[in-house]
Write a structure and sequence with these properties.
Order of helices and strands: HHEEHEEEHHEEHEEEHHHEHEEHEEHEE
Radius of gyration: 62 Å
Largest sheet: 5 strands, antiparallel
CATH superfamily of the largest domain: Histidine kinase-like ATPase, C-terminal domain
Length: about 500
């Protein structure tokens, strides 16, 4: 602050004055009056501009000798009393007439003898000389500085003038606060900031700055510093953003692209090319991901091997079941040729046809790579063709079976019951009751609805689709419908007999 800077320079001058008086004291203590004057004149010539003169007081405070520049009109009594009281270097404020009627500081140093203080060597320092100090030269325009005694009734102006004196000081200094900063009004009503600092035990230094320029300067300084802070923050954010982009975000993006390109065992994980330059945390993350992907790839390869083995076993099971069913079918065919009773032979023949239907189902299962689904169109065509080919030679020309089915896949859980149900209807048509007319005419139509619903329609122009005398056929058909989760409807229309089954189909056709 202004007062602190001026106070440091003023204290330096006082300390130098004390050293100067200490050096001067032995020269003038025992000299005669003319010798004393010459020593003091030589000293003032060699010391410079801050001193107006030097003087020597006797043991009762009377002036013993002095330089011509000490000035007149000053009383050393206040200084002498202060020196006696403190017993050491003291400073007092007075008024001198040289070079003009201005305030001055009196500095005194006691000269001790056997009987106490025998003399006091002192110096006058006009306050006008202090205005040339560097600290006063750096003071803001419109400021002022005073020296004033503690509890005194006047203030001696160093620079600036007395128009900035606060009202308490102008009225007697009774309310001036020591070592403080305060705001007060001048005699003209102007608001001024004041700073009071102790100069010595008996003197104060007071500096004044007008409030308006100070506040304007403070506002401008605040705005400037705020602008600096904002610019610094903006630059910091910019640096942090660029740093985060190149050290974190860009490596993370590169690492994320590498993660997304990972495609299991078929497309192994490849670390990004800039991995060595990435932060240690990202390098550890990439290495950990490599370890995880290698583990996942190994497990995926083993899982594929297990799935391949499973599919091979399932294909082998279906193949063997198909072969075993074919053997059973052949055995039933041989047995049917040995049976003479027509009803028994017909029952064996029907059982053989049901076994053939199962055999064809397993045959389609092991022929396809996908063991969970069956291509329904080819399966139904082969099933109906195989069953129609088992009809008696004399009835074969009377068999007419039309199949309309879309090329689609159904899961084995649905294709199995659906195929076996159609096979049961075809078998009933190919093996009529003894009193019924021979021949078989069927129209089989499989419809798919967009809402995930399948519909099977079977029409016969010659006879009912399910025999009333054969409870097993009806039981089997209703059981297959139940497995499909569908609903069975049998109808007798003027032109034909109709069987309708509505059942749900999972999305995609395969569970």
């Amino acid at each position: 602050m202004l007062a602190d800077a001026v106070l440091r320079e003023q204290a330096t001058v006082l300390a130098a004055t004390q050293q100067l008086l200490t050096a001067l004291a032995p020269q003038v203590a025992s000299a005669s009056s003319p010798a004393c004057d010459r020593s003091l004149i030589e000293k003032i010539v060699s010391t410079g501009k801050y001193f107006g003169g030097f003087f020597l007081l006797d043991q009762i405070g009377h002036l013993k000798c002095s330089t011509g520049r000490s000035g007149g009109g000053f009383s050393p009594s206040a200084l002498f009393e202060s020196v006696k009281t403190t017993g050491g270097f003291s400073v007092a404020l007075t008024t001198v007439e040289f070079p003009e009627s201005r305030g001055a500081l009196l500095a005194g140093l006691p000269i001790a003898g056997n009987d106490g203080i025998v003399a006091t060597v002192g110096a006058t320092m006009p306050v006008a000389a202090f205005a040339s100090m560097p600290g006063y030269g750096r003071m803001p325009e419109g400021s002022a500085v005073w020296i004033l005694p503690r509890g005194g009734d006047r203030a001696v102006n160093i620079v600036g003038g007395d128009e900035l004196l606060p009202q308490p000081v102008a009225g007697g200094l009774s309310t001036a606060r020591t070592d403080s900063v305060f705001e007060s009004g001048t005699q003209s009503g102007e608001q001024v900031f004041y700073a009071v600092r102790p100069l010595t035990d008996s003197l104060l230094l007071m500096a004044a700055l007008p409030a308006s320029p100070t506040i304007s300067h403070a506002d401008a300084d605040f705005a400037f510093r705020l602008t600096q802070i904002v610019l610094l923050l903006g630059l910091s954010v910019l640096v942090v953003t660029f740093g985060a982009h190149y050290s974190v975000l860009k490596p993370l993006r590169m690492l994320g692209n590498a993660f997304r390109s990972y495609g299991g065992s078929e497309v192994p994980f490849t670390p990004p090319p800039g991995l060595p330059a990435m932060p240690a945390e990202l390098r550890r993350l990439a290495r950990r991901f490599v370890e995880v992907t290698e583990t996942v790839t190994d497990r995926e390869v083993k899982l594929k091997e297990l799935l391949t083995q499973r599919d091979q076993l399932v294909h082998e099971i279906h193949h063997r079941v198909k072969n075993n069913l074919q053997i059973v079918s052949s055995m039933l065919s041989l047995q049917a040729h040995r049976i003479r009773h027509p009803v028994a032979r017909s029952a064996i023949h029907v059982a053989r046809e049901r076994i053939v239907a199962l055999m064809l189902l397993h045959q389609h299962m092991y022929r396809r790579q996908e063991v969970r689904a069956i291509e329904i169109q080819s399966f139904l065509n082969e099933l109906v063709t195989q069953l129609a080919g088992m009809a008696d030679d004399e009835d074969r020309d009377l068999v007419s079976i039309d199949i309309i089915a879309p090329p689609m896949e159904l899961s084995t859980d649905q294709a199995g019951p659906l195929g076996l149900m159609i096979a049961e209807i075809v078998i009933n048509c190919l093996n009529p009751e003894p009193a019924a007319a021979h021949g078989c005419s069927l129209r089989i139509e499989l419809l798919l609805h967009p809402e995930g619903r399948g519909e099977l329609l079977i029409r016969s122009e010659t006879r009912p689709l399910l025999s009333d005398s054969d409870g097993l056929s009806q039981t089997l058909v209703r059981g297959f419908v139940q497995q499909l989760g569908g609903k069975l409807e049998l109808a007798r229309r003027p032109a034909d007999f109709c069987l309708k089954v509505v059942f749900p189909i999972p999305t995609g056709g395969v569970d």
